[in-house]
Amino acid sequence: IRRLILKLERAINKNQDQRSKYPDDPTKFIDSEADLDATIKSLMPLSQVPALAYPELVKSETISMLIGLLSHENIDIVIDVVELIHELTDEDVGGEDEDDEDEGEENKRDAGMKMLMNALAEHSLLELLVQNFSRFNEEEESDRQGLFHVLGIFENMLALNPELSNLIVAKTKFLQWILSRIQAKVHDENRGYASELLAILLQNSRENRIAFASQSGMEMALQVLSQYRKKNPETADEEEFMENTFDAICSALQEPENKELFNESEGVDLMLIMMKEKLMAGSRAVKVLDNALSGSAGSKNCEVFVEALGLKTLFSAFMGKSKKKKVDVSAPASEETSHIIGIIASLLTSLASESPERTRLLTKFVEGDYEKVDRLLDVREGVEVRLKVVEKEIREEIGPEMDDLWYLRRLDGGLFTLQTVDYILGWICMEDDGIRSHVSVMLGRRSKSLKNIVDTLREYRDNVADGDDMEESDATSRRDILNGLLGFLESCI
């Protein structure tokens, strides 16, 4: 390892010396450049012995030498360095013998990787990589591959240290570059990688979500997705690109400020068009709308949704094929159905009492001989069946004494959907006597009653905001609503 490091140092010094002596005569330094190229590539196998090699690379100032080469006049040398760092930072380094290594060896490998990553961050690697973006000409295959390796380095470093995410966005123009890159008209691997990194940057960071919005990211991302209104992605890679862009918007919508921007960018209208077309983007659009309409910050989006005739599209998707075919209640509610239910719950929460929009919503549940209410009850039954199975599994695994974990696991196992369905049923029963009578009759046929809905809503009220990203003001409002619903339903039992 030390021999390789010494060889690299000599190759760098020789190349620098010849370039400074003969700056205008490439024939004089071309041989030393070829030697430098070969020497950098000879360091690649060090990724197979991270426990030994990485501490040595850090102690010997090799990291500093490699970072210095990122400003080399020859872009091919820069690409060599980028490819090497991408290989060294891969999470599977030393993976060939992973099955045979004991815990001590694994700890050494992890410690070596951490040491290397910290050294790279301290030497401002990510900032320098961003500064190099303008040097890559993606018309050239080698440059395109070089940029792919750069993006791979960002992914590797963020995977090991997610806290770098905020630093990257605050200190560099990386987010700006990504937003520009995903707008390319022709899809390729690097565009897909850029969208993946965008989703990662926004996943768990309020600061990055706000920065995304302030750099017109919401408008740009919606514009990118608008191409999928009338056509599906052409390849699996492009489908993943579309998914990542939808995920980025969903993450951004976790921030109340961004819901208003979504409306201003006509996001509600675009998502409804996608739902109507029933292409791949349709089910993703439902998820986006669920996020956009939730909470007090989503109330304006709820109004826009109804004004844009979204109820017809929403309930058409909700009913699906159930008019023609008996629904298998034992099957879990699909992700799309769960999001549709979330949208209905948000509409009931936010649309003003006695408003034309709210009246239109309630009318949907009455029309067609209460068919939408029956569909809700079918979903409820299916979720209950699944939840019983999940509760049995959890009880065997963790025991009832771990109350917090028990509740969160149940939420994931179907309780959240059950709570949302019963929240909707509670609202529509309170607002329409005919619906309440119909629900009571249909529950009775399933050996259930309004008391079962009361039990669900009582537990929901007692745990509002647990396992949820709900704002405190929204949680207080939801508790107040649940108390009102419970008061009414209890008086009916």
Automatic annotation (TrEMBL):
Its main location: nucleus. Residues 1-82 form the Beta-catenin-like protein 1 N-terminal domain. Gene3D superfamilies: Leucine-rich Repeat Variant (1.25.10.10). InterPro entries: ARM-like, ARM-type_fold, CTNNBL1, CTNNBL1_N. SMART domains: DUF1716. Keywords: Coiled coil, Nucleus, Phosphoprotein, Repeat. GO terms for biological process: gene expression. It is found in: Nucleus. GO terms for cellular component: spliceosomal complex. Transmembrane segments: none annotated. This is Beta-catenin-like protein 1 N-terminal domain-containing protein. It comes from Serendipita vermifera MAFF 305830.
